[in-house]
Amino acid sequence: WICIPCQPHEYLLDELTCMDCGLGYWPTLELTGCYELPQEYIRWRDGWALGPVCLSCLGLLSTLYVFGVFVQNNNTPIVKASGRELCYILLSGVLLCYAMTFIFIAKPSTSVCTLRRLGLGTSFAICYSALLTKTNRIARIFNGARDGVQRPRFISPASQVGICLVLISCQLIVVVIWLLIEPPGTRKDTAPDKRYVVTLKCNSGDGSMLMSLSYNVLLVLLCTLYAFKT
Question: Transmembrane segments in this chain: where (predicted)?
């Protein structure tokens, strides 16, 4: 008989048997047992995190500045004509988009994974819903003026905000259904060729993430359609 060395991820069960430590574990130096590998995830001091954080901070400050300009000139004719209520909703969505950067860089946990699912699609939905409501209103006003009909319905600020909130609530319903079907949590991911590296991730799959963003794609297509109409 000959001696056969154990694989790097195996330990000695006895003198004749090598045993796999399992995913997420690695043998000790003496090969007498296994220990749990440290979990890898993006940390705030990493270069991959510092770049997006700096850009997000710049975006947040710029958006807050624009928000302040709108508030300062809240009752001026230009701000009123631009649809200030929808502009505030749009700016809130932009702020949430920038803030989501910090959620995606934070260490994965059940609460963080829940916020990721809730915030990613919702932040985009807030922006696109406000844009869709604005473009739809403009298109209906132009069509009414061209056809010589009476003033279109539901173009008042309160009606526009209500329509926008209904559009946003559709995305929230999609997210709630997703959370019920696939409860949020974390998982340990290892590559077959790098079993010594354990990455901590949220348990949501790429397919379900894309499905949650499909409603936003619909909003974008409708925004584009009304933009061409006007």
Answer: 48-68, 88-106, 161-181, 209-228
138 and 211, same structural domain?
yes
Question: What ranges in 148-213 are assigned the alpha helix state H?
Answer: 157-181, 206-212
pLDDT band at 149 (very low <50, low <70, confident <90, very high): low
Residues 6+ apart with CB under 8 A from 122: 96, 168, 171, 172, 175
Rounded to 10 degrees, what is the CA torsion of 56, 61, 64, 65? -140
> Phi, psi (5° rounding) for residue 66?
-65, -40
pTM comes to 0.83
Looking at the fold, whether 213 and 100 belong to one and the same domain comes out as: yes
Q: How many helices (H) and strands (E) does the chain have?
A: 7, 7
The amino acid sitting at 170 is C
Which of the four pLDDT bands, split at 50, 70 and 90, describes residue 147?
A: low
Statement to judge: residues 51 and 32 lie in one domain: no
The reply to whether 43 and 32 lie within a common domain is no
Using the predicted structure, report yes or no on whether residue 145 has a pLDDT greater than 80.
no
